[in-house]
Structures are given as C-alpha cells and as structure tokens.
Amino acid sequence: MIQLKRLNKQFGARQAVNNLTLAVPAGEIYGLLGHNGAGKSTAIGMMLGQVWPTSGEVLICGYDVSAHRRQALQKVGAIFESPAFYDYLSAVRNLEILSSYTALVSPRRIQEVIEWVGLSGRERSLVRTYSHGMRARLALAQALLPQPELLILDEPSDGLDPEGIHEMRQTILRLRQELGLTILLSSHFLHEVEQLCTRIAVLNQGWMVFEGALAATKTNEIWVRLKTKDFGLAVKELLQARMITRDRDECMIALSPGVETDQIVRRLVERAIPVYEIVPAEQTLEDFYLSLMERQRKAQ
Amino acid sequence: MFDLHLRNELWKLFGKKRTYIGFGAFLLAQNAMLLAFKFTRWQSEMERLLEGNGYLALEYVSALTVALIMLIPQIALLMPLYTALVGGDLVAKEVEDGTLRMILSRPISRFRLLLVKWLAGGIFSAALVVMLGVTALGFARLWFPWQGMFVFIPGQIFNVLSPADGLRFYAFSHLFMTLNACTVLGIALMFSSFNIKPAAATILALSLLFANLVMEGIPFFERYHQYLLTFHFHAWRLVFSQPMPWAQIAQSVCVLLAVNLTTFLIAAAAFQARDIKS
Known about the structure:
By secondary structure, chain A is an alpha/beta fold.
C-alpha cells in the first residue's frame, strides 16, 4: 500500500528524514514511532504530497505521489493531530467541502458516515460548538468519506481525554475489522501502538532505527521486578554469581538463561539481603522503545 | 467538479464574518461622507465652482454627482484595504488554521486549488465594487435629486453629463474598478502563497500600493508614471473624460491584466514549491 524508497528530506541545514525505506503491506495496522522531531510527520507529509522529498520516491497504492497525485491519493483518508475545520460552518458543510476535493459524494453517503462515527443529530451544528472528541469524530468522518483503502493517522489521539483515547482505539480496530482498511498510525502512545499494530517502524532523528513485526520487539530476556533493602548490593551479588545479566531503573533485573526467581530469592536470603517482592515483568513496547533509544544515545 | 470547488470556495469565503468588514465599512463611510457633503461647506463650494464655470448648480448637484464624489476616496483607500485583507487570508489563513493540510491530503492539484481561490477572490472583488457603487448611488439618491452629473477631478477631468450618460458611464466605470480590486487581491494572494502569516501578506500588499502611491505624488517620478500601479488604477476615472481617452484606458487595462497574470503565476509557483507542514 505504501512504499518509501530511499526517502530524504532536508529543511535548510537540518536533515529531517534520512534514507527512509519502508513498505506497509495491505491489511496491516502499521505503527510509526519516534519522539517529537524524529521525522514522523515529515514522512507522513511526503506520503500525502504535502512535503516535497529532497530525494527518493513515495509510492501510494502503486502510484508516485509527486508525479501522479490524483491516482495515488484517490483512495486515501487522513487524520492529523488537532484536526482543523471551518469552524464557522456546519459539520455537514465541512464534510461536503472536504470530500469534494476527492470526488462527488452523495448526501446519503455523508449521512451514513455521520451515523458511523456517531455524530447524528449534531451534523447541522457549527463546528465551533464541537468538543475535542466530536472534532476527532468529524475528522474520522471526513477521512472515511472517499471510501478509502488506506487511512493515515497522524497522532489521532492527541489531546483526547482517556475515554476519547479508548474510543479512538476501538474505532481503529473497527475500521480494520469492518472495512478492511490498511492503517498507518503515528502515535506517541506506545501502549496504543502495542494494542493495535502488527508491525512498527521507529524513527530517531530522521533515521529508521527499527522496522519489523511487533512480536520481534519481545526479546527472550526475562525481566524481574525486585524490591529489596539494598538494590545495589543485591545486583552486585547476583552479577558476581552470574545469575543476572544487567539491571535498570533501580528495580529491574534481567535473569541469566536458565535462572529462576526462587534461585534469586534463595541466593539473596543466604547473603542476608531481605527480599520484599519479586515479580516477573513482561517486556512491553515501552521497554523496547526506551532501550532502543538508550542504545542510540550511547552509539552517538 | 471545477464549479463545485468554486462554490465551496465561495462558501468558505462568504461564511466568514471578516469578509463582510469591507461591506460594513463602506456603508458607514458613505453615510459619513453624505452627511459631511450635506451639512458642511463642501456642497456650497462645489456649487460655486459650477456657477463660476457657467453651469446652473441646481441641475448638477445630483445623486450621480455625489455618488461619484463618494466613490473617489473609497476606491483609492478603502477598497485596496479590504481586498488586500481578503486576498492575504486566502492561502495563509488556511495554512495557519490547518485546514489547508486537510485539503492537501486529498487528490486535488495545488494549481487548481489556487485557481479556484483566485476566482473566488475575483467574485468577492466584483461583489464589493458593485455593492459600493449601488449603495453609493442609493444613499445619494435619498438626499439628492436625479439630475445631470458633474465630474471634477482637479487637473484631470472637468465634465458635465446628462443623467442617462452619467448613469451609463457610472456603471461602465465599475468594470475598471473591479479590475483594480482584482489586482490588489491578486497581489495579496501572491504574498499569501509564500510561507508568511495572513496579516503579513496583507501588509506587504498594502505597502507595495502605498509605495506606488507615494512615488506617484513625487514630481521626480512623473516621467515614470506608466510604471506605477496606482497610476493605472485611475483608468476608471478616465471613463468620465470628454473625449474618452481610449488609448490610455486600454494601456492601463493591459498593464493591470498583465500584473494579474504575473502575480497569479508567481503565486502558483510559490504555492507549488512550498512544503505544507503543521
């Protein structure tokens, strides 16, 4: 659905995107991760033909966005963080205006989409009277109007309250299940990405530092949360005994292969180090992301 | 689809309250000028001028004469202000508000989008000028009789016309006023297409006009008048000259059309080349 080939973008002296190559297959929910300024929005801008690449190629639905914009974006819907509308016009008028740039849309189709996103009854109200959550739903409606096959979501949960974030997550799942859309999701919410995406790419300072299936982010390393009287002493003791490989965050230890938690407890108690709590912790995407960023920092 | 895009652009333009600032300001200014003309020495001075030249003042202090008197400063000062305000908003305000990013995620070409905006701006300019002319004449008619037209622009035009000819030339002059308004709007749209704020686009357009106006007033630049935009903006007044200087009017129209085309092409090139980011 999306193919980026050796994509570069330079703003003055700053290289925003560096040699980015990735492919989003049809039917996936693909996560694009990275800190602020990592190049996610620039990459999305290039996918939508809003930002011109310095070099490289962007293919959407098989068409080069720069050369064949109309064909490339015909079946694409997009939502951006803080969706913007003509606040002084009604929701229906906004939908009519925005959808007209893709194709002629019937009033019946507009009504269908309004019902799908749950804005029935408020469609004639001025958008300036809408809450942030309602604006997010309207953004979704405008993205769905051209009956897209690909949906590009740039921080769709930004600024939403916890209930709104949950609702957005459910909607994204519905979009794939009910409409079979391919979705590119750029998000800061790692928990959200972990729940939704099947594949991710991580950007750091314009470079892609990881690309792969979400399952690949789960390592074989077993992390354990250890609460003890003296964590530093416990770590020293366990490292000497080669029972752990490393530690982090003043409470987490990574067990050496074949070592079980009861052996850890026994060793510490034998050395008169009291153990208050020991709990195996599954590695989350957040753990993976943070350790990836840490490695990048050290490499620099 | 093109007419649908144009209709939508008009919805956007005329849905905004600030689009009507110009219309409101014109109404206020016209009534203030009418009161000033009626209740100060302005009217009596004009009567003296007419009678000094052998005309019966009562026959020419009319709705048409007063409407034209009101139009001259409004076309020179207020019209550029409000068309520049709207022109400066056309692209830059959409970038600032984030709506342009929503539009450009769709398969419409930037050239087509800009062309639609330019046409919508042209329709706004025409509406503003027509409204200005109609209300000026309407308000003037409430206070003054329907009689002959007296046109006096110091150093340029002195003419008296029958009511029928006066109305004909009055209506005809609106074509050239619309061209002026479109030109100002086009200049503002050109600046608006660069990566700047809407207010900056408006100010730059007005600054350019102001610089032209100042140079036009400096004797040294008299021989370069044909290079100044504001000089060509006077074409609408020449309609009232006797005989009508067709060559000069045609030259001004050609210059203004060329300026319109040039500013649009610059705007299209700038808009096409720029990156649209949040």
